[in-house]
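Give me a protein, keeping tokens residue-aligned:
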Amino acid sequence: MDEGRDFLARVASPLVAVVADPLRVPALLAKSNVPDMALFLRPFGFRHHSGVTVTDMHGATAALDPCYIRFVEAHAAESPDPALFQSVLAADVMARYNAAAHVLPALRTIADVESFRETAGFEAMTPWFSHYRNLVALHTGASEHDTFNHPVACLVVVSTSDPSVVATAQSLLSESNLPSILMRPYMDPSVLRLYLLLHDPEEAPNADPAAILADMQRAGLQTHLLTINSQPAEPDQKPIVPDVWSPFIAETAALNRKLASSSPIAPGLGSTLPSIIDQPFQLPSDAGVPQPPPLIDVPQSPPALSLSQQGLSHGRGLRLSVSDFQAVDVLIKDFLLKQVLDRITRQMRDWERDIASARRGLSGRLFKVGLKYFGASKSAAPAPSAYMDMATRTTVFPFASPELIMRRLGDYAVMIRDYKYALTVYESVKKDFSANERYVKFYAGVQEMIAVAALLVTDNPNKTGVESALEASVQAYTDAKCPIYATRAALLVAEMTKEHHAYRDAASLLIKNTAEDADLKSALFLESAAICFLQSNPPLPRKYVFHLILAGHRFAKAGLRDHAQRNYVTGLSAYGGLGWSLVDDHIHFALGRQSYHLGQVRDAVLHFIKLLRRSRQTASAQRAYLAEFVYIYQQYGAAGGTVGTEEGIPAIPLPVIVDGGVTVQSGSLGSTGGSGSANAGGGDDEAIWEAMEKDLLDFAASGGDAAAVASAASKRKTPFGQTVAVPQVTTLNETTTAVGEPVTVNFQWQNPLQVPVPANNLYLECAFGDAPESVTDLQVSPDSDVPSKIERPEFDVEVLHDVSLDANEKRKVQLKIYPKREGTITILGIRYLLCGVIPTYHRFHKRGRRLNDTPAQRQDPDGVYAPDVVLKVVVTPPMPVLDVLLHGFPDMMLSGQVIQVALELNNKGSRGLKSLYVKTSHPAAFCFGDGTSLELPSYASVNEGSVAAAEEEEIVGNALDRVSCLPLRLPLPDGVVQPGSKDALGMGVLPAAMTTLVPVWIRAEKAGRFFHRMVFVYQSEDQGGYRFLRYTIAAQVYPSLRINTFTRTSLTAMNEFILGVEMENQHPSLNIVFRQITSISPSWKIEPLSSPDEPVSSQLGPNQTQYQYFRIKRCTGRQPLVVHQTPELVTTTAIERLIYQDAEAKFAPPDIRLVMHSLGAPGQMSSSQQFPLSHMVQSQRFAARLATLASQYPSIPARQLSQLFTLYWTDDLDLLLFWEAPQTGQRGHIAITGTNLNLYSPLPLSAWFGRLDARTLAGRALFSATVRERTQLVTGLLKSRAVGGGGGGGSSSGSSNTGARVSSDGASGSGSAGSGAKESSPVRVLVKAETDVVLSGGPDGVCVTPIRITLGNTSWMHVAEYTFEALSPSTAPQHASFAADAPLSQAPLNFAWVGQTHFSGLLQPESSVDVLLHASFATPGMFDVNRWRLHTVLSFSPAALLASVDGGRSSSIAGEKTGVVFVQTPTIPQHVLVTAGHPVQR
């Protein structure tokens, strides 16, 4: 359909009333299957007639291109009852179009809109709206308040077969035989009369049509001759002219039929007419029989006809020839249009002269230049005025009243498209109609045309004025109870607004004119507004979808469920996946209801299922949703529908079950006590449990050999991705149970709604072996209770009768399976009865771990997962069942506290238990004993009487092979000679139904709340696979002592450091006593700072802080180092072998001797060498060491670190600080680990590989290793991350912490070596000089004093080539030097060096040399003699080079400088006081 101005030209085209001879004309038209003369002419009136011109009110000639004319039967021009017309119109519009065939697109983005515009366009999206708009604008009939539907002329149609044609023509439109429409008081009875003479050669073969035409013209009748039916009749004849009548006939046939047969409908029922909507209208069966006079219609995009309608269309225009068809066009253009337009323009001039000019006055007449020469208007009789029609209770203006003439003048101006003149007329007459409230309908009509004309006179209309005029028009029509005209006004203004491409304004107008009591109109308006949003610039797709949903809501209220469903489906497609819960809920609820009422019960159930979830719905809404869902499902179930099957609907997600949280446990749950729970882990992170079980399984497979575990782990996957197959002992995560031993399935059962959800008869659906899946039915007789089990030959399943959930309730559900036969049970899902009527089946869907072994698996965006075996239960012969319980575990602990508890091991199975191993999530926090160590204290005393210091030694393994998996010793049979041997571990057996106790020491690492996990693995005494048991305990730890340590080099000794310890009691109420400090190191030990008798122990009150200082000295009597066997060079060699791919030598660092020196209260010191403290210390050291290495070398896998690095460096120092809380008896210790006292980097990687860069090293890779991986590895080794701060300190609040290396003494320097932490020179400088010197010979004398310089090489692997230079005071850095009695502002005095000032040489590892300088003083004063520069170049000693893998490389670089250069200068002054007399006493 055409839009904008063309639409208005059709609506406002002249109307011609047709009066035809009822005896002869219908018979002539019946030959061509056309019901009446108006329908015969109507298609030709709306053809595009061009070349038609008129003279406007300004005297200018205007072309009407195209020009249209409308036709209506005179007796059908009356206006029907408004309420009846509106209701029947609604039914006709919506029943003609199939909503499913016009699905609106879901356009979510602007790109989608542009693509749709290019492919489909917006014109044909809603043909029902175009049809509705046409009928409202064109078929409302004649009304008293406007004249567009008042006939401008009457066309009298007669036939040449009439013997008295002239008489018949005159009688058809005589004064006594006027049509009823012309007898209305507001109609002018003296309309233009035109006559049409039809000639059918077959009906009047002897008639002379030309003569008859002449007779009619002589009688004063303006007549035109039209010949029809010139085509002779033939058998099986087909039309030769196009069928232009069928669309117009079909458009209004059903509407006219319903209007003719319906009784008036109350105004309130105009929006919902189910009886009308549900029954489609049918066309008359016989198209040749005259039908009731139709309303005039102007379809622009004729809808497709139904099959029955297509049958009626055959034969339309059957007897018309091509010349007959063309003659009708001539009739319209050359006769009717010419006569009608001439009449219109003449009347407009007369009314302008007689009425309009007089009403405007002199100024108005002067404005009309073309009319001023005609003189003043004629005197006339008093003009008629408006009156009240008592029959209709409406106000009527007679046709000759000035007000109605002015209205007609404006309407005629619109017809000839002089919109500017029309606007002035409407503005003038508006004042007349606004003066009286009885003229409200007339006022509304004028405001309507003012809004329309204002949009046509200019390209930039006043938006506010147009909206105000339309609002006034709609309100006035509403007050006058004429809603159909209010609808017409909104439609016309919206169309004219679109003409200016103001689609957003048009949408706003349509939305504003929706009404609560007019659902159909509102739905159509909202739908049209949605399309306007698409046409706006830029497009607004969100507003489009939103208003489609609003339109769907109004369609539903109007009873048009198929159209409502169509809009909601579009909204669901557009909003789906955005997570807008309220929008989704509204759409699904609406679609569920509409689908149900349309008979689509399955779709209704699917939509209501979407509502049964957690959302922002209110409780009342959810209760309504649930009730409707249950009711609809009952209808669905009655029709044979099922839930959770492929042919039925999906499983109902109510209650919510997270499949990933489904766990399966074998055996009985066991007892729970304290803060622990056996078989816990349903709510824990499953990945953590699986990793622990995997490590423990590897350990058990190796027979408890930690080295074998590390070796197997390292061989399982090389650092460069080479995989090696390892035999599997058992399938990880596979649940194993024994016959007669129940299996428990745990899952979370959650109600997402805010209303209770009834659920009962819950049981598991399982399959046995390879048998096909089947449905397990729960048979309950009416007179019996629900059974507690469902029995099957292979197993039984538990039934829970009532598992209902309150609003938002979460519940952990446990269902049991009782195996009866050996085999495999597959857990498929659960079945339950929802709300008492809905049998529901939820199938479990679990997937295994994600696979990352190949590049394709790693790059897959959705991930590749291994098959899940958790839901498979392997039923074996009878086996042991372990249950554990911790006795004596406290509710709270202090950080660092150590407690002893008893671990109860109970075998509840029917077979003996052996090969028991345990793995903990926090290895440093646990120490497990055996049955012989139940009486061991946590801290064993040192057997050295009342001494305040004690020293112990212990040789320990230096490999990082300590794992968190441990064997637990079980009772041994008689005759075992070596109970602690490896062979004895597999011989211990815990018989069935027996219990044993194992002591466990637990240390609280740091403050906070912790969950400790323990996994146990064991075997039956009959061998077979392993079984797992999970155990969890919670620990609440409060702070005790915060320890901060710092070290500095001593200024008086070469191999000595000063240790400072800051202790703070962080407990708010307890006093804590510091009892002992112990150093653990291969090379260093702790000593008192001053006196050996100085007390160490002290008491700290709540929140109190104390400081203590100690001395760290090199251990005396240390064995000479074998350099190439030191931990540092062993690690360097291992890294070298890794880079060079030399895998022949196994990494086996030699054991290391640890010296443990303790200071504390006499008689109260604890031994660090005795179990269990020794085990806890080593576990803490291992955990801290591994964490430090992982942070320093993040690119190296954790398992690879244990094959490269050792547990201790040569200069490592660990500290243990023991405390006690006397008020509660709690005891504990805090460990500071990882402090390295080597001034230079303990791991010389940069110097060792200094000649090769990462690319060169990567080039030496084997073919199996990629260059990228090797380069990353080498870069990570040579550029490790620095850990810890400078100053060599560490801090702890009850947990182990890593210290840093110590900076050198009072010298500043820079070095070119070093990666990671900043390097310091290993060469120390000590300056010794007399502090007081007296000038010889008095004040004018001179004295020379010796200055001794000691250079010491603290490194045991480097040779230092040094150059020492004493700097003169003028070139050395200036420190404060001044005379003793001089003011502070006086410049410092200088002194001079005498004798040799330059020294050079080599310092072997751990050696020193003395240099003697002489300083000469000539004046008294305070002088700084610490002025020197030391240049050092490091190289590896020959002993260190023996550790190299490549012997050629060793010989080639032996003696070469490594390129590590240091330059040192002093930073601390060394003062000498020179006096003239006796030395100053200080």
